[in-house]
Amino acid sequence: MNSGKTTSSSDFDYEVAFARNIGWLTLAEQAALRGKRIAIAGLGGVGGAHLLTLTRLGIGAFHIADFDTFDVPNFNRQAGAMTSTLGRKKTEVLSEMARDINPELQLTVFDEGVTEQNVDAFLDRVDLYVDGLDFFAFPARKAVFPACARRGIPAITAAPLGMGAAVLNFLPGGMTFEEYFRWDGCSEDQMALRFLIGLSPALLQRGYLVDRRAVDFKARKGPSTPMACSICAGMAATEALKILLRRGEIIAAPHGVQFDAYRNKMVRTWRPWGNANPIQRLALAIASRQLGME
Length: 294
Known about the structure:
Blueprint: E1 2-5, H1 14-17, H2 27-34, E2 37-41, H3 45-57, E3 61-65, H4 90-101, E4 106-110, H5 119-122, E5 128-131, H6 138-151, E6 155-161, E7 164-170, H7 177-181, H8 188-199, H9 226-245, E8 255-260, E9 265-270, H10 278-290
Parallel strand pairs: 2-3, 2-5, 3-4, 5-6
Antiparallel strand pairs: 1-4, 6-7, 7-8, 8-9
C-alpha cells in the first residue's frame, strides 16, 4: 500500500477548476464534496472512468485498488489504456491522470488489489464505495461488499451491459449485496449468472447481441463497449452525488435502474428477495439451460 499527496501546480485553484459545477451544485455542496473520500476497487473499463469522472466532480480523496497492468485488449474501453501505458500498473497510470486534473488530490493506492487481508485498510475513513471490479472478480467482491455493510458504508455497483448500464445501490440498513445476489454455496459459473441476471433483470442488452459466442463464462470473458463504460461512470457519479449530499431520490436494492442507449430505453427494476424472487429463479433456470450450465 502506498499513499501520498502531490504538491499543487502554481496555476491550480480548486474553486476555479470546478466552478462550472456550480449551478447544479451550490458552493457549500462543492466544498462538501471536496472533503469526501471514495474507495474504488478495479481501475479497468468502469473503474478508471469512475475515478476520472468523480475527480472532475471535485471529490477530494480516493482509495484506489488494482493489481493489473495495461494490455492491448484493454484499448476498446479502458480510460488509461494507450500505447504509451502498455505494461504499466493501472493504479500508477490512473493516479497520474487524476492528479493531472486535481494536483491537490489525496490518493491512497492499493496496488495489490482488494483482499480479505487489506479490506479494512481499504475502507478506512471512506464515505462511499464504488465498484469497478472486473465482472468475474468474485473473491474481491465477497470481501468488500460485506465489509461495507458491516461498516455502514454505502456501496454502488454500475455494470456496463451492451451499450448501456445497470446500477444498484446498497445502503446502510437496507438489503445487502449477499441478500440480493445469493452467492452462498454457488460455483463461480453460477455466481457469474446470478450477478448478470441480478444486475439486469430487464436484460435490455440481450436483443442486439450479434455474436453469442463472444459470451463465454467458462473462459471468463465477454464483449464490451466504450459507450457502456462512459454511461456507467455518469450514472454512478450521479448516484454518488445524491448519496454524499443526501439530496435527490436514491433507488436502493432490491430496486435498480438499467438504461440502454442502443434501445433508447430506461427501466426501473424491482426484485423483492433479490435472486430468491420467483421471477428471478425462473430467469436463472432459463439462462442456465441456454448456456449449458445445468
